[in-house]
Specification:
- The structure is a single chain.
- By secondary structure, the chain is of the alpha+beta class.
- It has two domains: about 15-155, OB fold (Dihydrolipoamide Acetyltransferase, E2P), CATH 2.40.50.140; about 185-335 and about 395-500, Bira Bifunctional Protein, Domain 2 (BirA Bifunctional Protein, domain 2, 2-Layer Sandwich).
- It has 16 helices and 18 strands.
- Strands 6-10-11-18-17-16-15-14 form an eight-stranded mixed beta sheet, sandwiched between helices. Strands 1-2-3-5-4 form a five-stranded mixed β-barrel. A three-stranded antiparallel beta sheet has the order 7-9-8, with no helix packed on it.
- It is elongated and about 90 Å long.
- It starts with 16 loop residues before the first helix and ends in a 7-residue tail after the last helix.
- Homodimer.
- This is Lysine--tRNA ligase.
- It catalyses: tRNA(Lys) + L-lysine + ATP = L-lysyl-tRNA(Lys) + AMP + diphosphate.
């Protein structure tokens, strides 16, 4: 018996629309033949189920080291997608792929299945089809783990052809047709699994610290918890305008008021803003709050969460990005002051007392554009990004932000004019933010009023007065530390990919 391997070498030209149309017509005709030849009562082209006894990954784990030409005497029934195929006179070969990318060869021999079955295989089976095969587990003469097929069945027909398995899909195709990306590209499947490992690791770390996971509303009568433009919708049942949430913060804090001292949520946020390599209008967010902690304690917790997630994916806190770069997430991360680091980088002293007029003049000198609805704090943050952000290489907590840009944060315990807030920068972008939470309802109302004034002047990202949240605070919220982190960005930090790669099905026009 002579083995003919799956084809290798230069890829064929990409099919034209006309080619695809013709292939679809041929495949649909094969589907009609499958229907006509069905003998069971179920009807239709495909079986409801097939008698699987094992999986391709399991067979590779158990028999992957078989010597060339070895036979096991063990029969297995497995199913997979046909990704390579070659038909010869008396022997046909196909490579079956499982959902995780594992592969096994199916060998359909005239001597084993008979003439009718072999001919049906040649006439009916196409690349992309899901096929069930049953037979002995062997190693071919070339050393390829194989099933010597004694029985086979098409489980589902691919009416449209697969893309070329030898050439990369374009980024646009990968995003728009992620299902094809998952079929043809290892990295796409690995990213999905990495995301699942990250989420499992986050939950395990929180559980080890006695946090409870909760779910809070995504449809809200009032948006809040962040400075962002919301998506607006309407409830017909309640005949009222609603907002897709921009953050779960104000509801999670209600939970802390209610006595859930350590609480977190992993869920979706929606912000009606721009989309680029680090932003998506819909994204997964982690927020967590711990009573009787502060922004230092929650920074420690965030570092542990991220380092454990890196270990879950990479086996180490040193991760390897998609471009081959190694990045060290280990050790203790730097903590720098926003005002001090800005002053050092700019070569002039900038403090909370620096006037808005001085900041405007200095920004003009160094070419920093005026931020929307300018305030002291917004200019400080723009100048900090201009002078400092690009020089950060290691993971870094940037501490102590201007008061007027952080309406939900407690004022610093010893430095006037700033709040106890940090932003964590990894890979050049903001990955997470953390606060010593503002729990005084009187001060919080004053901050909301200031935000309302900004909104009245046209700032669409400003918060509104949330009386229900204030009523909760009036019942007493303990001193707390809180943090928020984008799950998609965490994947970016660990894998080196862009945000559209880390989201399984990103929004595209």
């Amino acid at each position: 018996m002579t083995e003919t391997p799956a084809p290798h070498g230069a890829p064929d030209a990409e099919p034209t629309e006309e080619d695809i149309f013709e292939q679809k017509a041929v495949r649909l005709a094969k589907r009609e033949r499958l229907i006509a030849e069905r003998t069971d009562a179920a009807g239709g082209a495909y079986p409801v189920s097939v008698p699987i006894t094992s999986t391709i990954p399991a067979l590779r784990a158990e028999y992957g080291e078989l010597e060339a030409g070895a036979e096991t005497g063990v029969n297995a029934g497995v199913a997979g997608r046909v990704v390579f195929s070659r038909n010869t006179g008396k022997l046909c070969f196909a490579t079956l792929q499982s959902g995780d990318g594992s592969r096994i060869q199916a060998m359909v021999s005239l001597a084993v299945v008979g003439d009718d079955s072999l001919q049906a295989w040649k006439e009916l089976v196409d690349l992309g089809d899901h096929v069930f095969v049953d037979g002995e587990v062997i190693s071919s003469r070339r050393g390829e783990l194989s099933i010597m097929v004694s029985h086979w069945q098409i489980a589902a027909k691919a009416v449209l052809p697969l893309p070329n398995m030898y050439s990369e899909l374009s980024e646009e195709s990968r995003v728009r047709s992620r299902f094809l990306d998952l079929i043809v590209r290892d990295r796409a499947r690995e990213t999905v699994r990495a995301r699942a490992k990250v989420n499992a690791s986050l939950r395990a770390t929180f559980a080890a610290h006695d946090y409870l996971e909760v779910e809070t509303p995504m449809l809200q009568v009032q948006h809040g918890g962040a400075s962002a433009r919301p998506f607006v919708t309407k409830s017909n049942a309640f005949d009222t305008e609603l907002y897709l949430r921009i953050a779960p913060e104000l509801f999670l804090k209600r939970a802390v008021v209610g006595g859930i001292d350590r609480v977190f949520e992993i869920n979706r946020n929606f912000r009606n803003e721009g989309a680029d390599s680090t932003h998506s209008p819909e994204f997964a967010m982690l927020e967590a709050y711990e009573a009787y902690s502060d922004y230092n304690g929650i920074a420690d917790m965030t570092q542990e969460l991220i380092q454990n997630a890196a270990i879950a994916v990479s086996g180490s806190t040193t991760v390897t990005w998609a471009d081959g770069t190694e990045y060290d997430l280990g050790g203790e991360w730097d903590r720098i002051s926003m005002y001090e680091s800005l002053s050092a980088a700019a070569g002039r002293t900038i403090t909370p007392e620096t006037s808005l007029e001085e900041l405007v003049a200095f920004a003009g000198e160094v070419g920093v554009d005026e931020p929307p609805h300018p305030t002291h704090g917004k200019y400080v943050e723009e100048l900090w990004e201009h002078f400092v952000k690009g020089g950060l290489t290691r993971p870094t907590f940037v501490m102590d932000f201007p008061l007027d840009t952080s309406p939900l944060v407690r004022e610093h315990r010893s430095i006037a004019g700033v709040v106890e807030k940090w932003d964590l920068y990894v890979r050049g972008f903001e990955l997470a933010t953390g606060y010593s939470e503002l729990v005084d309802p009187v001060i919080q109302r004053e901050r909301f009023i200031e935000q309302a004034k900004l909104a009245a002047r046209g700032d669409v990202e400003a918060m509104r007065i949330d009386d229900e949240f204030l009523r909760a605070l009036e019942h007493g919220m303990p001193p707390s530390g809180g943090m928020g982190m984008g799950i998609d960005r965490l994947l970016m930090a660990i894998t080196g990919l862009g945000i559209r790669e880390t989201i399984l099905f990103p929004l595209v026009k």
